[in-house]
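U., I forgot to send this yesterday:
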Amino acid sequence: MAATLLRRTLPLVLTASVILSTGACMSQNSDDANQPLPRKSRADALTWAKHYTSTMAHYAEVKVGDKYGPFTDFEDCVGRDDEVAHDGRYTLTYTVYANLPRDEHIAAVRKLRAALKEHGVNVSSYEERPRAHQVVLDGYHEKEKFSLIADTVKPPNTLRLSVSTPCFLPPGAKQQKF
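Result:
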């Protein structure tokens, strides 16, 4: 009974905590290059990304390993016209890998895809390659402005789970105007 209750409520708790930890901080689409950017420290962004990839692994029912990662990639934000500000704004891509037999990749990502759709992620592309036991999923959360990937990668039996944030400005930094 307790195990069944935990299995039913854990995904809701994980999703709620991810939404609460990101929701108020993401930017909105705008043609104004000087619109205030959402603020988040690099440490907070990394904590969020670790939590979100953990949630993705939970939904896919895979265990993330440390043989090939995780990888943390902070980069300067690049504007629509290739401008780069000098105010500390950044994006983060955080990637983890699960060691999973290739013939289980499609089933795992199908589970993830179903959960993501229920929680506001638009699956922008999805492709299964059954003969090769490969799968590719790209998603985007319109409201929260983050993207994600779940796909089969090399070396054999490796499933990648990755999330990328929108552009953040560190707390206390003065936003550069263009």
